[in-house]
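@channel sequence for tomorrow's demo:
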Amino acid sequence: MATILIVLRSMNDFIYLLHILLQFRLAYVAPGSIVGGRAELIDDPKRIARNYLSRLFIIDFFAVLPLSQIVVLLILRYPIGSGAIHAKNLLRLAILVQLVPRIHRILPLVVGSSPSSFVFVSAWSNVIMNLLTFVLASHVVGSCWYLFSLQRVHQCFQDACRDSNITRCMHFINCGHGNEYVTDVEAWKNNENAIACFGKDAFDFGIFQTAVNLTTQKSIATRYVYSLFWGFQQISTLAGNQVPSYFMWEVVFTMAITGVGLLLFALLIGNVQNFLQALGRRRVEMYVRSRDVEQWMSHHRLPEELQSKVRNCERFNNWATTSVVNEKDLMENLPEDLQQQIRRHLFKYVERVHIFQLLDEPIVDALRERLKMKTYLQGSQILYHGGLIDKMVFIIRGKLESTGEYGISFPLSEGDVCGEELITWSLEHSSVNKDGTRIRIPGHKSLSNRVVSCLTYVEAFVLRASDLEEVTSLFARFLKSPRVQGAIRYESPYWRGLAAKCIQDAWRCRKKRIKRADSSSPPRI
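structure tokens (generated this afternoon):
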């Protein structure tokens, strides 16, 4: 058993040693630079090592010393008699003393009072971390309770030995085997004062009364689980159901449990409560929104089919409407170059369109700034025959089908685009003077001659016609180059289908002319 505990303790110390080595390369924020709001990140290895050595290295070094392993292997294994008492006291002291610096280093990381505190993206991860911290505190309290209970049982045995006439009883208490003192062993086993130590009246155990019989259990799992349960119970109730004896250190231990319980409830359990309250607010918001939607549909007497589609759309968008960060406000507070890099990452699907691969980076960045996120339900029609083309849709996820004239259809999926004919229309109906001013040529809006429908749920970025007109007005000269026009007309699925249709019509006309010419010409003799 001692070997297993030494191995587990050594593994824990090794992980802590890796943490110490990491501190020599972990950048930190200079304390004096925070005052002006412009924090300076120190990443120089020499300055990092100097800062760590002068502040926290001593604490970490003392916490990682293998004191308990040394006591178990070199001191506690061999002494018999009075030396065993000092060895066990030394082991308790080593464990408790090393526990203080570890708590001092771990607690700020969990509570959030340190610049290097744990930050969790998921709220559930935060809750789980708080619960694990509660379990850790219960483990510490329960272990100390069992350790102190052993000490009190040992004290009871010592008092019973002093009141008896058995000369070697102290030798038996302190790990002596006593094979050569059979008479004294039997007398000590049958001693009334020693047996009474496992009762309730012989010795005032105080809060350790329930642990007296627990020390006689052979199962290690039983002893540990019950001690962990006792720690849970006392932290949760702030030791309100415990009455300590008049032993001073027992009173101090009870006061420490009360203080730890108050600290955990204030710092950790409070975080869980805040999360549950926030979750309840989101549920209320979702309920109020769904109720308002139902009342609106009932007031306008929408048919059941439309109501079902609206409910599906609301269910699909519930997360986005209640828990997503306001992207507009978030982006506005970031530097312009960082905004540009984020947009390039989010809207990387734009670069998959061959039309935009020929454009310069400033034009593509201008398009990215105007893209908006949009979701479509299964069966929704993005474009329909005879309708206005007022947007370009860049597909992120999902599958669509585009059906043109004469029933010609082709699939669209991730990375494809529909509504690209809007670019040609926008360029054909705008011109630029020599002075750079934009002239709008009157004309009808572009009409769709195909139907684009969603086969699955579709997530896409949408570029509105007004935004596209603004971009084309800024970069009209470049967009009207033959290279870009060729990409628009020859790489677009829409224009390919239209070209195939024109070729088929021309071929049919030619076949008809040849057939009429053959039928009208006189036969040869």
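heads up for whoever presents: Residues 320-324, 432-439 have pLDDT under 50 and may be disordered.
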